[in-house]
Amino acid sequence: DALTAQVAEAERLAEEAQEAARQEFAAEHERLSAELEAERERARVIEDDAAHLAEAAREAALAEQQIARLTAQLDEAAAQVERAREQARAQLAGMLAGMSAKIADIEQAAHHEHEEALAERQEQIETLEARLRDAEERAAQARLLAREEYEGEIATSLAEAAAVEERIAQAKAEAQEQYQAEIDRLAQELDAAINGAGEDGVRLAESLGFLQSLLDGIPYPVFFTDRDGRYQSCNTAFARRIVGMPRQDLLGLSFDDLRGRIPGELMEALRRGERDVLTEGVEEAYEVRVPISGGQQRTFAFRKEPCLDHEGQIVGVIGAMLDLSGLEEAQQSLEEERQHCATVLERVPAVVAEIKPDGRTVAVHGDCWKLLGYEREQLIGRDWWETLFPGHLQEPIRDVVGAMRSGADLDDRALVMRTADGEERTLSWTTSNARNDRRELVSILAVAVDITERAETEEALQLSYREALERIKKLRCLGNVLRLTQDESLSLVEVISGIATSLPEAWGYPGITTSRISVYKRERRGGESPYPVVAFQSAPIMVSGEKVGEVQVCYHEDRPERFDGPFTADERELLDVIARRISEMIERRSAEESLAKLRLFRHNLIEQANLWVMALDRDRNVVLWNRVAEEISGYSRGEVVGHDRVWELLYPDRGYRTEIIHGMTEVTFGAHIAEDWETIIRARDGTDRVISWHANRLMDDDGTTLGSVVFGRETSQRRAAASS
Asked: CB neighbours (10 Å) of residue 416?
C-alpha cells in the first residue's frame, strides 16, 4: 500500500510538472512559433538551449535515469536476447508469453509433485510407526524370558528407527529450507530492484529481466529448447547444477555442441522424448538416474511439454526436472528398517493382536502357538474375547472389554485366559487405541505376555514399554503436525486447531493435560480439565525473529519431577519441534503470498503507467506494448507484438516512415539518444497524433546491442495550443 501511494504521488507530481512545463513552453513557443514551424530541428535546439525551461530539463534527466535503471534490470535477459536466432525474433513475444504460462504450469506441477511426495513420505512414516510400535512392544516383552539376549537388539532397533526418523526429518527440512531460501532470495531481489529503481524504475519492472528472475527463483531445473535442439533459455539451477556451465555459455548451444562436454547418460536423458514433443505435441514424463555437475549421481523426474507461439505453432520444448534422490534414500532406509523390524517381530516371545471394536481379530503376531496354543490363521476373523475367554472367564473381563470398546486403554492388566488345549494361563494385557479424526475408536492393539516367571523383571519391563508407547504417541503427534502444516487448503486457524487437539494425547498423562496455541492473537485449545494449572511448558512461535505466538502444554494435577518439571526431555524436544514447524509454515505462506502480490503489482504497474511504453529488438520487432500504447494508437497488443509491421501502421507515408526507421536505427546501433523527438503517427481511427519520444538502446555487459526501449507521450494538445 505504501509503495502504491508513492507511485500515485509520483504520478501526481509528474502531471503537475508537465502542466507547468506546458504553460512555460506555450509562452516561449509564441515567440519561437515562426522558427519552429519553418525548421523542426532548430526548434529542438532552441528548446535545448532554453535554460530557463527547468521542468523540461528535469523530465529529460528523469527519462535518462529510467533508461539506466531499465538497462540494469535487463542484464539477466541479455544472454537470452543475444543468443536468439535471427529467424526466431518475430516469434519472441509469443514464446515469452508461452514460457510464462508453461513455467506457471511447471511450477504448479512441481509443487503438486512435491506435495504428493510429502504425502507419500507421511504414509511411509505412519507405516513405519505401526511397524515400530509392534516391534518395540514385542521387543519390550522379550525381556521377560531373555532380557540379556534381546536388550542390545531392542536398543539397536530403537536407535536405527530414531536414525531413520532423523534422516527423514532432515531430508524434509533441507527441501523446505531450500524452497524457502529460494523464495526469500527472489523476494529480496525483487524488493531490492524496486527500492533501488525508485518510482519510475518500478513502473518499468515488467521487463524481460524480471522474467529471468522468475526463472531463477524456481528451485527446480527449468529449460527451453527450440526446434533445432538449441537451448534458448534456462534458469540457474539447470545451468550450474545440472550442466555445470554459466547460463551465458550454455544458451545457443545444441545437443551436438554439448557432446563431450557433459556425460553421455545426461545427454541421452536431456534428448529423450524431444522428437515426440516437437512432432506430435505430446507431453513426456520419465524418471532416470544421471550424473550431474561434479560427477554426483542423482535420480530426476523429467517433464517436457510443447511451447506454442501466439498462432498455436510448436516452437520448442519446455522442460523441468524434479530431484527424487532424497525420496529414494528415505524409501531405502524405510525398507531396511521394515525388514529389521520384521526380524525382531519373529523373535519376540509375546502375542500382539489388532482387534476391532466388535471383537473381530484382524492380525496376530508373535509366539501364538507357545502362549495360546493356536496358530495365527486359527485366530484371524474370530472373536478374540469369546475364543480366549470362554465360559466363566467372560465375567471377570466383561467390564474390561466394555471399557476398551469405549476407548479406554489397558496398562499391564493381568487376565486369565484359556489356551486351545484347555489350560488356563495368566497373561498381562496392554492395549493402545487407534482413533480417527472424529475421535472414533478404529481398532485396539493388544499385547499379551505370560507373566508367570517375570516377577523379577516386571518393573523394568513396564518402564520400557511405557517409554516405547510414549515414543509412538509422540511420533503420531509429529506426523499429524507435519500433515496439517503441509496442507495448503487449511487456514491458519484450522491448522493450529488440529494441532492443539492432538497435543494432550502425546504427553505422558493425557487425562490431566490440556494445550493452548496462540498465533497473532488467535487462540485454540485442546483437552479439558475442571482443575487449575499446576505445571506448564511452552515454546515460542518465531517469524522473522519476532515472537508472534506460543505453543503451551499444561498439567492440571501434580506429577513427579522429571527433566523439565514433570515433563520429560522428549516432551520438551517435541514441543520445540512443533513450534518450529508452525513458524516455518507461517513464514512459507507469508513468502508465497508476498511473491504473488509482487507479481500482480509488477503486471499492474506497467499497464497503469501513463506513458506509451514499447520495447524493440535489434530488427525493430515489437516485444513490449502496454495499455497506453493501445489507447493512443488504437492498435491492440496482439496486432503489433512479434513483428515490425507497426511502422507501416503508424507511418503510412513511405518517405516519412524511412526517416523514422533511420532515426530508430541510429538509436539502436549508434550512440544517439532520442530526447523529445516529436513525430506524427496515424492512429487506427485515421487521426494524426503528435508523439514526443524518448528512446535509448539496450546493451549487455559486453557492449552487444540487444535492442531499444522507447517511451512516448502524446503532445497533440500542446502542439495545438502552441500553434494557436
From this structure: 14
The C-alpha cell at 542 is 518465531
Residue in this structure with the C-alpha cell 529448447, named with its chain if needed: 225
CB 384 within 8 A of CB 443: no
Instruction: Name the pLDDT band for 341 (thresholds 50, 70, 90).
Output: low
Contacts of 217 (CB under 8 A, 6+ apart): 182, 183, 185, 186, 189, 595
Taking the C-alpha atoms of residue 404 and residue 410, their distance in angstroms, rounded to an integer, is: 7
Helices (H) and strands (E) in the chain, counts: 24, 19
- All three cell numbers of 177, joined, read 529450507
| Residue at grid coordinates 488504437 | 634
312 burial level (CB within 10 Å; 0-12, 13-18, 19+): exposed
- Per the rule left: phi > 0, alpha: psi between -120 and 50, beta: everything else, 60 is alpha
What's the CA gap between 200 and 69, in Å, rounded? 9
pLDDT at 139 over 50: no
Concatenating the DSSP letter of every residue in 255-309 gives HHHHBTTB-HHHHHHHHTTHHHHHHH---EEEEEEEE-TTS-EEEEEEEEEEEE-
Q: Which of 87, 190, 307 is nearest to 596 (CA)?
A: 190
| 155 class by beta-carbon count within 10 Å (0-12 exposed, 13-18 middle, 19+ buried) | exposed
Question: Could you give the count of Cα atoms lying within 13 Å of 271 in the half-sphere of its Cβ?
Answer: 15
**The C-alpha cell of 556 is what?**
492440571
Distance CA 225, CA 719 (A): 49
What are the Cα distances from residue 499, in Å, to 184, 299, 387? Answer: 27, 35, 40
Residue corresponding to grid cell 507515408: 653
- Give the pairing of strands 612-617 and 522-526: unpaired
Give φ, ψ of 558 to 5 degrees: -70, 140
Q: Which three cell numbers stand for residue 449?
A: 505376555
The DSSP output letter for 457 is: G
pLDDT tens for residues 116-130? 655 665 665 566 556
**Helical residues (DSSP H) of 670-705, grouped into ranges:** none
Q: How far apart are CA 695 and CA 679, in angstroms?
A: 13
Per-residue pLDDT of 615-634, as tens digits, reads 888 888 998 898 899 999 99
pTM above 0.70, yes or no: no
pLDDT digits (tens, 9 = 90+) for 245-268: 888 888 999 888 888 888 888 889
Alpha-carbon span 254 to 597, nearest angstrom: 37
Mind giving me the DSSP string for 109-160? HHHHHHHHHHHHHHHHHHHHHHHHHHHHHHHHHHHHHHHHHHHHHHHHHHHH
